[in-house]
Amino acid sequence: MSVDISAEPLLDLIPYGEIDPLALSVLAANLQAVLGLPTRVRPDRPLPEDSFIPVRYQYDAVKIVGSLDRERDGARFRMGVIQRDLCIPILTYVYGESQLGGRAAVISLHRLHHIDRQVTFERGAKIAIHEAGHLLGLEHCREPGCLMRFSKQLEQLDLLPMRFCSACEYEIARLLKRAVQNRY
Amino acid sequence: MARSMHIMVVDDEETICLALSAWLTKEGYSVETAASGQEALARMAEKKSDLYLVDFKMPGMDGLQLLAEIRARQPDAALIMITAHGSIGSAVEAMKRGAIDYLCKPFDPEELSLIMERVEAARAIQQAEAPVADHYAGTSQLSWGGIVGQSEALRVVLNEIEEVAPTNASVLITGETGTGKDLLALAIHMRSEHAHGPFVAINCGAQSETLLESELFGHEQGAFTGALKARRGRLEMANGGTLFLDEIGEISPKMQVNLLRVLEEKKFCRLGGNQPIDIDFRLVSATHRDLRQLLREEQFREDFFYRINVLTIHIPPLRERLEDVPVLADFFLQKYAQETGKPVEGLTPRAVEILMGYNWPGNVRELRNVIERVVVIARGRMIGAEELRFLKTYDDSCRSAPATLREAEILHLQGALEACDWNVTRAAKMLDIDRVTLTRKMKRFNLKRP
What we know:
heterodimer, A: 184 residues, alpha/beta, 4-stranded mixed beta sheet, 5 helices, 36% helix, 19% strand, disordered N terminus, B: 450 residues, Rossmann fold, Helicase, Ruva Protein, domain 3, 3 domains, 5-stranded parallel beta sheet, 14% strand
C-alpha cells in the first residue's frame, strides 16, 4: 500500500503511561507501511481513573475506548497503547479493543511480552493493525494468512504474516479512501 | 467476512450485551440483544435466531425458564447458557435441559471462539443434511449427516452407527478409499455423548513418522530443532471429544506401541516433556487396508489391533450397492447446482442407467467429482447421456484387462486424462491426487495428448 508520510495524520497513537518509545515507533511505522494509515505519536497521558477494575486488577478497554471517542481534537482515528492488562466485562482479557467502523481503539502490550523485544514489537504491530482494520470497518477474516483473522493464542498471532489477504486489502483500500475524504 | 448465523444475546446487564454483541459482530455474525426473557420471546416472534446466548440469572424469567420457552417454540435452536463463576450446578442443569454448552463469565476469548467454531461445525452438518432430508421426506431413502443412499447395505451401516455411537467403545471403520469413512466417523461423534466436545481428525498416512508423532503428541519448547515454542498435539486437542485416526493401517509399529500406551493409561507426555497429561476421548479409526492381513504379515501389532477394534463398521464399496447411485447422484447434483447457480434439475433415465452401469473404482468420491464436472459443463436443465459420454470411455479403458500393474496405471491415467480432455487439473481432481503427482506420472509414462 502506498503511503504519503507527509500527509495529515489519520490516526493518533496515544501512549497511556510510560511506553517504550521504540515500541511506539514500530507501531506507527507498521500502521503506515502495512495499512497505509498516516500515523503520528502523541504525548503520553495517564489512564482514565474509572478504567481500573480493582477486583480483576485489569483495565476496562471499553471505558478507555469510550473516553478516546469522546475527545473532540485530534486525528480521525485514535488508538491508545497501554502496558497494563486489558479486559472487557465479559472476557477475561483482550489484546485490543476497537469500535467497528468507529473512531477509537486501544491495545495492550502486557500479554504480548516476549524475551526478544523484536517479537514483542511485532506482536504489538499486528494487534494495532488488526484493531485499525476494525476502525476502518473490517470484520474478522477466515483466511489463515490474513491480519484480520482472529488469533486465539499468541502462537497463532506469531504465525500470521504482516499482511492482509487480497480481499481485505481491496476492502481496506476502499475504506481508506473514504476515510481520507471524511478526515474529520 | 459476513457469516450467515443470526445470534440473540439475552442478558439484563447492558454492558454484557454490548460487549458480546460487539465481539460477535466483529466475527461477522448478525446479532441482536434482549434485556429480559420476555423481550427475547417478543423478538423471537418477529425473527428467529440460530443461536441464543442466555444469561442464567435474570430478574423475572430466568435462563432455565427461557430455555424451555425457546425449545418449545423452536426445537432446533441452539442455546448456550452464560453463568457466573461458581455456579457449575446451574450450567449442568441447563445442559440436561438441552443447552448445547455453557460459559462462565467472564470467559476466555479463546473459549468463546472455540465454542463458536463448534456451533458452526454442528450447524454446517445440520444444513448439509436438511435440504436432502426435505427432498427425500416421505420416501424410503436415507439421509444422515451427508450420508445418502437407499440400499439395504447402507441401512445396515446406519443402524450399526445408531447402536455404536452412544457407547464409549473404540470403533474401526473399514472400507475402500472414497467410500466416506470420514463422514461415518463424524456421524458417530455427532451422535455420541462427546458430541459437544471437539472432533479432531488426522490422516496418519499423509505424513512422516516424526511429523505424525509431533502432530499427535505435541511438543515442549526446545524438544527438537525448530521447536521454538511448546505446542499442543491432537491427543490434547481431542480431550472431551473424539479423535479420528484416518488411515490407521499406515502407522509404524513404534507408533502403534506409543498409541497403545496412551489408550491404556489415558495419559501421555508431550515430546521433550516429562509432565503426564490426562486425556479422555473416544477413538474412531479408519482404514482401507486389510488389517488382519497386516497382522498375519506382522506389520500390525495384535494388541493394538484389538484395542482399536472393539467395534467394527464396514462400509461396502459403491459397486456393491449400486442402488445408492441415483440417490447420491441426485444429492450431489442438487448441491453443485445450488453452489454454481446453474438451473440443472436432474438426470435423464438414460444418464442414470449409465451411472448405474459404471464400476465406480473411486467410490462415492469419484461419483461426486463426476457430478460436479457434469453440472459445471451442463447447458440444459437435465443431464443426459451426452454429458456422461466421457464416463463410458473411461470405464471401458479401465476394464480392458491390462497384464501388469504398470499397464493398468497407464490405462487408468490415460482414461482419466481423455475423460477430462487432457486437462491435468481436472484429471488430477477426478483421480483424487494432486496435480504435481499426476504431472510426474505423465512424464514417467510419457503420456501426452495425441
